[in-house]
Amino acid sequence: MNSDSYNEDREGPYYTHLGAGPTVPAIRELMEKRMNITGDALRIEKVIYTGREGKSPQGCPVAKWILRRSSKDEKCMVIVRQRPGHTCPTAIMVIAIVVWDGIPETQATGLYDYLRHTLPDNGHETERRCGTNEKRTCACQGWSDAVGGASFTFGCSWSMYFNGCKYAKSSDSKVHRFRLRDPMEEPILERHLQTLATDIGPLYKMVAPDSYANMTALEDEATDCRLGYRRGRPFGGVTAVVDFCAHAHKDQHNMNNGCTVVATLTKHRGLEKPEDEQLHVLPLCVLESKDEFGSVDNQFAKIRSGAIEWLTKYPM
Questions:
Q1: Band (160; pLDDT cuts 50, 70, 90)
Q2: Sign of dihedral through CA atoms 105, 106, 109, 115?
Q3: What are the residue ranges of helices labelled H in the chain?
Q4: What are the pLDDT digits (tens) for 84-122?
Q5: Straight-line distance from the first to the last Cα atom of the chain, in angstroms, rounded to the nearest whole number
Q6: Which residue of 54, 144, 192, 271 sits 20 to 30 Å from the alpha carbon of 81, by its own alpha carbon?
């Protein structure tokens, strides 16, 4: 199929900066080389683009399949999508990469404990349009503002009011990029988040080098707006969410051909299914019935083992 026949409504968005290849085995070869892992350490799952959002009757996120880590031996999971009818060098696209141990456990636990105790009392909550359904009738964040889910934004970001940097017209001698109710806590929060950005940068470079290159190409143009203590700083801002349910949305002002890196910090440890968990939903995709090698039996084996949960009820 040539590029002239490309139809985004039918095929979905086209991008190659996370990874692409002519076949699924080519994707495996690419990612094994990037990650320096082989065999069961790399898991590939295939999804199909539907163009129809999976949501509840109220318009809130719903997951039908949950992909969980199969074992400690599984280090990385790559989600790919076949471009219908294509046999070209980019017929298979990587749409998500999950690194299960992206942050060392000690660091993750310390950061989790700090953020969960600091942000609810000290943070300035950011009102986000994706916090509720379109009709503003859902209770996804809970009924009480005092204990409900919340979103907090730090660092630099685009402002709809200025059509540019939100600090562009700031009159303060020092911009508070990590603003909290208690100013004494701001240097501590900044140190935590700057360290996180510093540590995740090299991992991002390893798993998605093209995307990383795009995000750092103009690093020298705005060094004060970047997070991280050393060169190679792809990130300018961070959103920290606490029990927050983000409804399906499209970020309009992300860097072109970059990506959003999500670091999930939870109280849960181990591989068993937790009582309470955070899911990241791909709202326009469904899971393929066959695994990367074309086997239906292998997919059912994953369901039996718990690596895939196929939901028939959707607890809200």
A1: confident
A2: negative
A3: 8-11, 24-35, 105-122, 186-207, 209-216, 296-305
A4: 889 999 999 999 999 999 999 999 999 999 999 999 999
A5: 42
A6: 271
Only one residue has tokens 């129809």, namely: 52
Q: What is the pLDDT of residue 70?
A: 94
8 A C-beta contact, residue 116 and residue 242: yes
User: What distance in Å separates the CA atoms of residue 151 and residue 249, rounded to the nearest whole number?
Assistant: 15
Q: Show me where the domains of the chain are located.
A: 3-102+271-310, 105-242
Q: Distance (Å, rounded) from C-alpha 80 to C-alpha 292?
A: 9
What distances in angstroms separate CA 226 from CA 77, 96, 160, 191, 237, one per listed residue?
28, 24, 20, 14, 7
Name the pTM for this structure: 0.92
| CA dist 282 → 40, 105, 106, 194 (Å) | 24, 26, 29, 28
Given a cut of 90, whether residue 34 has pLDDT beyond it is yes
pLDDT per position as a tens digit, 227-249: 999 999 999 999 999 999 999 88
Put residue 250 in one of left, alpha, beta given phi > 0 → left and psi -120 to 50 → alpha: beta
Q: Compute φ and ψ for 240, nearest 5 degrees.
A: -105, 125
Please tell me the predicted confidence (pLDDT) of residue 172: 65
> What is the distance between the alpha carbons of residues 192 and 226, in angstroms, rounded to a whole number?
15
Looking at residues 18-45, what average pLDDT do you find?
A: 97
Which residues have CB under 8 Å from 103's CB, separation 6+?
Answer: 111, 196, 199, 200, 263, 265
Question: How many DSSP H helices and E strands does the chain contain?
Answer: 6, 11
198 Rama class: left (phi>0) / alpha (psi -120 to 50) / beta: alpha
Q: How far apart are CA 19 and CA 26, in angstroms?
A: 10
Whose structure tokens read 């298979």?
A: 92
Would you state the pLDDT for residue 5? 65
